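Annex B. Sample input.
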Amino acid sequence: MSRAFVKEDGPDNEPLPDLPVSSHPNYVTPRGLKALRDRLATLQAELARLKARAERLDKLPEKAAERDIRYVEARLRSAILVDPADQPGGEVAFGARVTVADEDGADAVYEITGEDEADASLGRIAPQSPLARALLGARVGDVVEWKRPAGRVELEILAIAYA
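Annex B, continued. Sample output.
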């Protein structure tokens, strides 16, 4: 193919903009740190696979993998490991698994984890979330107020556990 038809500069050859990195301290549990390391290894393997393709005219998948690798590497560099087993018992802190009862008596369990590990469907919440902010520092028997967009809810702390 003639070099006249090959695009060597332009938007296709520029890196994708970086993903935004949180300005909050990057506290991670041991499980969260392992997940970040595993994610980096997966992304690096995917990038190697993409670069080994015979047909590489579409560079966007490679650029996306490179961007994601930069993000995960930044999160790993800023990670502050906090082992829940080392947390003082008696009050809710990072890494705590907290059982609460709402005003109707319904129980729920929440775990305060790092931002990258947070997953509402698993009850894992980031320390910056309104719910975590309401729970942090509370003790068994305390009633805390969770300010939600749908309205305020009072939660009684039933149990606090650290893995």
